[in-house]
Amino acid sequence: MKFEMWSWFHFVIMLLPIIIFIPLYFILRNKSYKTRYIVGVVISIISLLILIARNVEIFIYEGFDPEIIPLQVCHFGNIMVFVALVCRSKIATSILWTLNVVAAFASLIYADALEGYINIFGSIRAQAYIWGHVFIVLGGLYSVMLKIVRINFKSFLWGLGVLVMLLIPAIVLNSYFNDVLGYSINYFYIYDSNGVPFEFLYIGDRAKYGWFTINWIYTLSVIGIFIVLLYAIYNIQKLFYLKDKTYDTHHIFSKIKHIKT
Question: Is 144 helix (H, G, I), strand (E, B) or coil?
C-alpha cells in the first residue's frame, strides 16, 4: 500500500494513539496501581522493541548509519517510554510528556516521510515509523493520565538538564555527520529548519569553526522556544492531580507502598 498524505488512512494513523488509549483508560482507571503498572510495562517493552527492530534492520542492510544513534527526538522518545514506565522515572516521564509526545504526534500529522515507501506494510522502517510514534504518544498519555508517575518541578528541571547534556553532543554530531561525512542528519531538529516549522528563524549564514558549523540564531531560538513549550506542557499535567493528594505506587522491585505527595 502506497501512503498518501491526508488520505483516510493517514487520519487513522494520526488517531491511533487515541483509539488505543481511550479503551485502555476506561478499562484501567479504577484498577489497582499494580495492574496499571504491569500494562504500562508491556507498553514500554513494545516501544523499545520497535526501535530495536528498526535499528537492527538498518544495520543489517546498510551497516553503520547515524540514524541508529538515538538522538533523534522520537527515537530517544521510545527509550524514554521504557524508562518512564518500567522504572517510574520522574525525569524520564518529564522528558517524555513535555518533549517527545508533542514531537511524536507532530510526526504522525506531518508523516510525509512515509511517502517514500512503495509499500508501507512491507517495510520494517515504515512500520517502525508509524508504531514508534504511536507508542510514544500512547506512553506519554498513559504515564500521566493513568497516574503511573507524577512529575514535580524538580524532575522537570532535571529533565531539562538531561536534554541540555544531550543537545551538546547532538549539535557537534550534526555538524560532523553533515558537513564532514556528508550524511543528512538533524538531531533534535537543530541543524537546520528542514522538517520543523521554524524556517523564519533561520537567519543569516552558518558560522564556521574549522569543520564545525552552526547557525547560532536558529539553534538558540529553537532551544528557547522549546523550553517555553516544555514548561507549558509540564503545567498541563498538573491538572490531572488537582484532587489527588496521595497515590499508590508499585514496581517490579518492591511491594506496594503508599506515598504522600
Answer: helix
CB atoms within 10 A of CB 22: 11
Q: pLDDT digits over 111-129, tens only?
A: 998 998 989 999 999 999 9
Instruction: Give kind and range of the element (H or E) at residue 258.
Output: strand 257-260
Which residues of the chain have a pLDDT value below 70? 195-197, 245-261
* Burial class (CB within 10 angstroms; exposed 0-12, middle 13-18, buried 19+) of 205: exposed
Q: Which long-range contacts (CB under 8 A, 24 or more apart) does 240-248 make?
A: 240/144, 240/145, 240/147, 241/147, 241/150, 244/147, 247/33, 247/147, 247/150, 248/32, 248/33
What are the pLDDT digits (tens) for 53-67?
999 999 999 999 999
pLDDT for the residue numbered 260? 40
- 247 within 8 A of 33, measured Cβ to Cβ: yes
Alpha-carbon Rg for the chain, nearest whole angstrom, is 19
User: How many whole angstroms separate alpha carbon 76 and alpha carbon 99?
Assistant: 10
Copy the grid coordinates of residue 236.
498541563
Find where cell 560532523 sits.
176
Residue 172: Cβ within 10 Å count:
13
For the full predicted model, state whether its pTM sits above 0.85.
yes
